[in-house]
Write a structure and sequence with these properties.
This protein is mainly β and about 130 residues long. It has one domain: Elongation Factor Tu (Ef-tu), domain 3 (Beta Barrel), CATH 2.40.30.70. It is built from 1 helix and 5 strands. The strands form 2 sheets. It has a 3-stranded antiparallel β-sheet with strand order 2-1-5, with no helix packed on it. Strands 3-4 form a two-stranded antiparallel sheet.
Length: about 130
Amino acid sequence: MRPDFPLDTLRGLDEFSHLIVTWRFHLGSDADLHLGARSPRNDPTWEPTGTFVHRNHRRPNRMATSFPRLLKVEGRDLHVTDLDAVAGTPIYDLAPYFEEMGPRGPVTAPAWPAAMLANYWEPAANRPE
């Protein structure tokens, strides 16, 4: 958080379990931009899908949104877990997650995201190769 923001900007945030964090894939480059369809994780067993179906650094603006669990607030320091960004990643915005503003009605998706992300939150050492 910017040091010039008053601490009051975080007042009450500690009452929420999760945040919405908007950040940027700052280590990506324009050379790695991919506009068009490709197989998720370049796995040919999954049908090619377009740029805006993927959630990775190959997007034109390299922006991302995560929903980390808020562990505690200490002054301007927010302690979170499950923020899938590397250390030093620029954070552009954050807000508490309101369940009432989540998706309405049934949520549908093809099978490949669940298969691809089955072990996403496991430490890299524990993931199957």
